[in-house]
Amino acid sequence: MWARGPPEPRRRCWLRALRRRLPVLGWLPRYSPGWLQLDLIAGVTVGLTVVPQALAYAEVAGLPPQYGLYSSFVGCFVYCFLGTAKDVTLGPTAIMSLLVSSYAFHDPAYAVLLTFLAGCIQLAMGLLHLGFLLDFISCPVIKGFTSAASITISFNQVKNILGLHGIPRQFFLQVYEMLRRIGETRPGDAILGLACLATLAGLRAMKSRLPPAARTEPLATRASYLIVWTCATARNALVVLFAGLVAYCFQLRGSQPLTLTGSIPRGLPPCRLPPFSKAVPNGTVPFGTMVEDMGVGLAVVPLMGLVETVAIAKAFASQNDYRIDPNQELLAMGFANVLGSFFSSYPVTGSFGRTAVNAQTGVCTPAGGLVTGALVLLSLAYLTSLFYYIPKAALAAVIISAVVPMFDAGIFRTLWRVKRLDLVPLCVTFLFCFWEVQYGIVAGVLVSGVLLLYSIARPPLKVSGQGTLLVQPGSSLHFPAIEHLRDVICSRALSAPSPCSIILDCHRISSIDYTVVAGLAELLQELRKHGISLAFCGLQVRGGHAQPQPSRHRAGPACQGKGLHRWAQPSPHQGEPSGRPSQQGHRSHLPCKARMRPPLGSTFSSRRWRLQHPSPAAGRGAGAKAAAPAQAHAALGCPESSEPLAEGNPPALGSPAAVSLPSGPGSPSLAGCGPGRIPTFPQLGGGR
Question: Which of the residue ranges 292-296, 397-401, 572-576 would you say has the lowest mean pLDDT?
């Protein structure tokens, strides 16, 4: 019988995998009463912020107010067990609410189904480790989207501050209708909304300028600091509470000049499956039709949710000196949305504002989310009757105050200084989002992709030299770039007054594909017809920089090269090789025409090249160090001077032509140069 191995290593691996999938197991054994106190304070503070924001963001999403609260507690509970960032809080946000309004058509059934499908996509991405797909949404696209969203969301709430009804959803129609109906403004809503905006702006400015109180300060000073800081942090809740009291007072007097939120169903949402069909007066909308109606939203919503959450988590992890696991964040987001869809939630993501509040209150673990979620549940159970008196103008002021800082005016100036081409996807996304949000995101991603593909198809090429052309690609070569490389080399080489030699500097080429290898083979044959030689310099062999290796000698002066790592290099006993560029700027010479056997086949690695090499005994003796450059050239099989080649008359293979390297600090050295041989696929990093 086979002896069974010890089970301890297997158990250890299983526990390690479990801790990786359940991060709560990493910090729960070390939980302390001090952490509990700070988590309670942070959870209550964030809860006072999320309740009014949830009611307001439901308005942005085009859903009844209770759906904002339904979306605010499941994510808090799930992230406590699966999240890797202690500061992040999940819930409804302005960006996600705007996307839901575009793809859910103001219908709760579509919104809940979108939550379920988006969560499934996020779960699949996390399990398949597809987090790298988020990297294809560039920073200019995100900045253009968030800046445009801040404007569109703000204008969408102006109608509530003015007390106007029946305003269309499209941005340009909104602006037109509000300007046309400005005379219908309700004074009560306008005065209250502007007062709430001014109060929120003042409290925000007060908090940013509030100096921290030291422990050595008197008790009264520290108490006053705590009061001011609490009021500034919970400013949304205070403003909504004050506005609700004003509306309630008007209601008691029998007159109501304000537009109120209205009644909200009391109690917790029922736990049930997401709606996979929708009943309509004429029949039923099947699942396939609902998915078709949401269209590209099934890709935009999960991706934008992940981008927002991972970006926030990385920012606060860097600020507070801890690390996150992006793939685990994908799983946490996916589980939060899938489970949230069973409680009538619309898609949630990380909130930057609430995460900042969480971090500033000193949260220690994700357990603070449990307190926040509990407060939301208490609000649904006992406070929904009080939400009736909250004016819509106050909620609009909360939204505008939250989204205005999202507009980044400095990004335009920054991109103008750094790279002006990045302004193209930024402006395309920014402008298209005013038409429709989904068009703006898709257009921005497409433009960014086109610019990325263009940079691959047209890599930077530096061509220098006169008698000898030195071609230096600035990046790796892929199949879209080979035609451009051939055109540049052929146009420069064939336009020269006499046939020249070409050196392809491969120092910066770390990857190559088969199409490029085939194109280089065709280029070599085309250049040979015109008597032009081609050499490769600085090749990287299987990911490492190739080093010169000595050639093995057979009987006779010629040796057989086994690959591009057999470099043309004089014997070390011949003194300083003439192929190295001198510091005085003299021109140096490198033999770049090789003896070639007839090809053994179409495979590049099967070809054998014969390179004329000096005898091992050449240059030995007491006077070897004083050998003249002419002797070194003779040992290399090159003529003493570099004679131009006659057009249409290539030299014989037995008489290699001398090639002059361009002088200067940017010229490559002789080490790492191989003449007249196409690199094989793995030698240039292919297949990686």
Answer: 572-576
Q: Structure tokens of 355?
A: 């995460």
Q: How far apart are the first and last CA of the chain?
A: 43
Reported as a single tens digit per residue, the pLDDT across 607-664 is 333 333 343 444 444 443 333 333 333 333 333 333 333 333 433 333 333 344 444 4
Angle at 199 between CA 198 and CA 201, to 5 degrees: 65
Mean pLDDT to the nearest integer, 369-378? 96
- Provide the CA 55 distance to its chain's centre, in angstroms: 31
Name the amino acid, one letter, at 441: I
Alpha-carbon gap, residue 121 to 133, rounded angstroms: 12
pLDDT at position 500, please?
77
How much is the pLDDT for 591? 37
The amino acid sitting at 391 is: P
Return d(Cα 199, Cα 191) in angstroms, integer. 12
Distance from C-alpha of 438 to C-alpha of 440, rounded to nearest angstrom: 5
Residue 415 has a CB neighbour count (10 Å cut-off) of 20
Kind of pairing between the strands at 501-505 and 468-473:
parallel
Domain with CATH 3.30.750.24 in the chain: 461-614+652-675
What is the pLDDT at residue 11? Answer: 64
Dist. CA 673–CA 658, nearest whole Å: 14
Of 527, 500, 470, nearest to 643 by C-alpha is 500
Is the separation of the CB atoms in 440 and 433 below 8 Å? Answer: yes
At 507 the pLDDT is 87
Name residue 673's beta-bridge partners: 537
Is residue 224 predicted with pLDDT exceeding 90?
no
Closest CA to 531 of 508, 569, 506, 502: 502
Helix (H) / strand (E) element for 514: namely helix 514-529
Q: How confident is the model at residue 8 (pLDDT cuts 50, 70, 90)?
A: low
Q: Could you write out the three-class secondary structure of 121-178?
A: HHHHHHHCCCHHHHHHCCHHHHHHHHHHHHHHHHHHHHHHHHCCCCCCCCHHHHHHHH
Strands of the sheet with 558-561, listed across from one edge: 558-561, 609-612, 595-596
Q: Is residue 589 helix, strand or coil?
A: strand
The CA distance from 157 to 154, in Å, is 5
pLDDT at position 33 = 92
Res 7: pLDDT? 52
Name the pLDDT band for 319 (thresholds 50, 70, 90).
confident
482-519 per-residue burial string, b: 16 or more CB within 10 A, e: under 16: beebbeebbebbeeeeebbbbbbbbeebebbbeebbbb
CA 407 – CA 174 distance, rounded (Å): 20
Sign, Cα dihedral of 157, 162, 164, 167? negative
CB count in 10 Å sphere of residue 281: 4
Taken as a whole, the chain contains a residue count of: 688
3-state helix, strand, coil in the chain (%, to 5): 55, 10, 35
Q: Which tokens sit at 514?
A: 């088969």
Main-chain phi, psi angles of 167, to 5 degrees:
-85, 130
Q: Where are the alpha helices (DSSP H) in 404-462?
A: 410-418, 423-435, 437-457
Mean pLDDT calculated for residue range 176-190: 93
DSSP bridge partners of 179:
none
The CATH code of the domain at 461-614+652-675 is 3.30.750.24
DSSP 374: H
